[in-house]
Amino acid sequence: MGSLISPLLVAVAGILGTLLAPLVSVRLSARMQPELADQQAAHARHAREDDEHRALLKDKRTCYVTVNATGWYRIVQMNYLHALHEDRLQEQDRVELDGLDAPTSKLLPKRKWLPPVRS
């Protein structure tokens, strides 16, 4: 009789394992879906931030190339510094220098290091 029960128990265990395997896999995949969705959202967020950062760098590079390519920027800066050094700085000098910063004004903060014009 013992020889009949052990094959029967093995068969029942095999059948139960076969029938329960899809339920277990569905349950495990249901647990993994929120984590997978979070990972995909994080990946999408990082990709979007990276694209925004690259676009900002491209804009900055374009502005700097535009400003530096003119050559006038450096001349106006030097004139401004000479006027400041010679104590003959006028409001027109500041306006001219600020006008050259127009391409970069959306990317860079306003200069705070410019001293006030002396009257």
Topology:
Blueprint: H1 2-70, H2 72-85, H3 91-100
Overview of the molecule:
The chain has helices at 2-70, 72-85, 91-100. Helix 2 packs antiparallel against helix 3 (91-100). The longest helix has 69 residues, at 2-70. It has 119 residues and is mostly helical.
Brief sketch in words of this structure:
The chain has 119 residues and is mainly α. The chain has two domains: 7-56; 71-105, no CATH class.
Radius of gyration: 36 Å
Number of strands: 0
Portion in strands: under 5%
Question: Strand pairing plus helix content: what structural class?
Answer: mainly alpha
Average of pLDDT: 79
Overall shape:
rod-shaped
Tell me the count of domains.
2
Number of helices: 3
N→C terminal distance: 116 Å
Helical content band:
over 70%
H-E order: HHH
Stretches where pLDDT is under 50 for at least 5 consecutive residues are none
- How would a textbook summarize the main sheet? none
